Amino acid sequence: MLNSPQADTRPGEVVLEARGITKRYPNNVVALDKVDFQLRAGEVHAILGENGAGKTTLMNILFGVIQPDEGEIYLYGRKTRFKSPIDAINMGVGMVHQTRKLVQAHTVLENIILGHPKAGRLLNLRKVREEVEEMCRRYGFRIDLDARVWQLSAGEQEMVEILRALYRGAKILILDEPTSVLTPPEVEVLLNSIRHMAKNNIALIPFITHKLPEVFEVSDKVTVLRRGKVVKTINIREASMKSLAEYMVGREVLFNLTNPKVNLGREILKVENLSALNDKGVVALRNVSFSVKEGEILGIVGVSGNGQEELAEVLAGLRKPASGRVIFDGQDITRKSVLERLKMGIGYIPPDRLGEGAIGNFSLVDNILLNLYYDKEFRKSIFLNYPKIREYTKRLVSEFEVITPSVDTKAAHLSGGNLQKIILARVIPKTTKLLIANLPTSGLDVASAESVRNRILSCKEKGMAVILISEDLDEALQLSDRIAPIYEGRIVAILDADNVKKEEIGAMMAGVSQ
Amino acid sequence: MARLEGLSFKKERIIVLTGGRAVKISALSVAFSFLVFSLFLYLEGANPVEAYLNIFSFALAPELGLPATLHRGLFMLFSALAFIVVYRAGIWNVGMEGQFYLGTIGAFAVAFAFPNLPSPVLIPMMLASAALFGAGYGAITGFLKGKLDVNEVVVALMLNNIAFWLVYLLTVGGPWAGSIASSSRPLPEPARAPRIWETPFTSLLAAALAVILYIFLKYTPLGYQIKVYGGNPNVARHVGISSLKVSVLVMALGGAISGLAGYHMWAGDAAFYLIPRPEAYKAVGDMTYWGIIIGLICLLNPLASIPTSIFIGAITVGSTVLVRRFRLPFGLDILFLGIITISFVAFQFFYNYRIKMRRG
């Protein structure tokens, strides 16, 4: 095979080593803090971590997408700098992304040779086919090389990407959330191939957030990242799933907000046996029931993709439930539209700020108007009362401490933290009874996240009912009065946040049964 | 970065495009297309300066081309507005042709049904009917787009074709057939558009619509909802703006405006006062596509599209002198319009970038 500079590596030899890798982002966020990592030939070395733990940054550094600020990478014992992914590929590092990077209309074989240095010149397809077939045999892949990619299942498409990386001569393979979109039988097949590859001296680094148990099956070693630091590197034989979940979420409490107790009022929201499908038509939410009272924060924690997104959308009116009822303030709102819910005093803070929460090329005034356009207060006869809307925006900008040159600035020019403040300023003042905050602090720097949390607490103090959806257990514990871990569409338990063990919830989130 | 004899050029991104810069770039692109077309004129043996002077003196002379310039230009304005209101919602309206044909059917049906009504009653009825027919036709596209996410361009193009044949069925040997083969009976006297300043009153209606549309889009809650949907349909969904409602609304509005052109074109020009032969009404229908180009050139601003439409109208009408006075081949006028369009589009690069030149 071509392009494998270190064609023969002995099993157990260190092939890749990262020493003291540090990466800082502009707003003083330290994404990686002196990360050490060692990978041996034929080893499956998983990297675990929650969202925001620094996995993506590490992955991008190992694949040459970004450069570390400090630290060195050694490849086969030689100090190396990947200036770009091309460098990494040429030196035998392959990557399989979470989102597929394939040409849908082309065949499997065509996709495998895509980007290969031999392609583009005269191509001996028969020889290539033989090589790829031989590779499939060696690693135990079963795939029709002439099938078009769009005809393949998600699992088969992943195989194609792996084959492509191997055909380019990868000896080290980075897998980003390899099992996240696969069905259980496909996972089985993938895990088998991983075993085959490891046996053939390929080193694999799966990066994992969820689906702990599956990874457990094939990995030799696990490195757990948390807030940019390596918490633990451990042989899988010495680890238990419970201990891994614990390392992932940590034990220490990092912030110190005061979470005041508010006298609970009426029951504002009652959800009965709610089920919903996701966009692919698969059941994502199964028979969920709970209730929230005035002056209470209910935290729903789980790793992403466990149904919390669908739950939030059903509550906001964005998704029709498959069955069950939503009772709001004594009234059945299961069939009510988004606008009706907004007018009733239900506010929703969506997770994707520029995709769902704000319009980038609109001014702040026009963004704030998103929650005012239906309000007669802000009209003058049949027209929008722009002077009043402008004044109102100015007041909110100062009240929510948004840092911006003016209210005419485009939302896209604000930092993430300031943008989130604008979204809060748009939603919260018009919310009177129920606030649903879906990942309100994800991707924010520490100070902004703190201010968002304070804002959510003050909603509760004002007597609103709040549903906080979070992937960050510390945050959820800090803010919530009651906490409900969610796993595979089911609420595992609803617990009083005051006397609950963090490890216990971490295990529930990871799907480890009690 | 490119190098040239010790000079270096650098591309720089422009973050905020000011109105002034947009106007300046548009003017420069027109100037550029005049230069390019000069080359063709020269190759055909005409003096470019003389040709241009003839084009514009003809198109703008009140006793010669001006009435036609205004009539054709403002006809294209209807299409431009019909395109703009829809594209503000991020949806492509390429169905102006079909909506215009339906407006034609709507207007003529009323006129033929009530030929004896007095003008002040008949004309408003014709206009309302034209708008309604156009709106209904546009709404089909909007409904399919909003409800089932069917591609609006494909649907509209198919509907354009259907509309063409509907008119054909009615005129060529159909119930509206006139004494001249393959064109319709003439419009009854009271149905013909009264003239103000030598131009049918519907020209002023088009200009007024542009102003109303500008205000509607900028200052009303509905206009804002259209803009939000165009800005990001997903955000719109999150604040309770329905995709179906917006798609149907804008397509119906666009269709209504296009439909009005069905009255303006045939009832506003003494050369017609009827639906002409299929090739002729198809040629007029093809002019509606200029609405897309005008709308895009004007960055979806209805006010800016008034002068732009008249300008395009002037060139359409004025270029006919190239054939008549200069004995140049047919089709040069279309070449000229093509060059202007391509030049406009190419110059949009400068909406987003400026080129910095440095020594060294």
From TrEMBL, chain A:
CDD domains registered for this protein in UniProt: ABC_Carb_Monos_I, ABC_Carb_Monos_II
Keyword Cell inner membrane recorded: no
Molecular function GO labels: ATP binding; ATP hydrolysis activity
Keywords attached to this entry: ATP-binding, Nucleotide-binding, Repeat, Transport
PROSITE patterns assigned to the protein according to its UniProt record, in alphabetical order: ABC_TRANSPORTER_1 (PS00211), ABC_TRANSPORTER_2 (PS50893)
Gene3D superfamilies membership: P-loop containing nucleotide triphosphate hydrolases (3.40.50.300)
InterPro entries referenced in this protein's UniProt entry, alphabetically: AAA+_ATPase, ABC_carbohydrate_import_ATPase, ABC_transporter-like_ATP-bd, ABC_transporter-like_CS, P-loop_NTPase
The keyword Nucleotide-binding is annotated on this UniProt entry: yes
Domain ABC transporter: start-end pairs: 16-252, 269-513
Pfam families with a match to the protein in the record: ABC_tran
Name of this chain's protein: ABC transporter ATP-binding protein
Source organism per UniProt: Caldiarchaeum subterraneum
From TrEMBL, chain B:
Keywords from the named record: Cell membrane, Membrane, Transmembrane, Transmembrane helix
InterPro entries linked: ABC_transp_permease
Topology in the lipid bilayer: Multi-pass membrane protein
Compartments where found: Cell membrane
UniProt GO molecular function: transmembrane transporter activity
Highest taxon listed in the record's lineage: Archaea
Residues annotated as transmembrane: 21-43, 70-87, 99-117, 123-144, 153-176, 196-217, 246-267, 287-318, 330-351
Gene Ontology CC, one term: plasma membrane
Matches recorded under Pfam families: BPD_transp_2
PANTHER family on file: ABC TRANSPORTER, PERMEASE PROTEIN, GUANOSINE ABC TRANSPORTER PERMEASE PROTEIN NUPP
Name of the protein this chain belongs to: ABC transporter permease
Lineage: Archaea, Nitrososphaerota, Candidatus Caldarchaeales, Candidatus Caldarchaeaceae, Candidatus Caldarchaeum
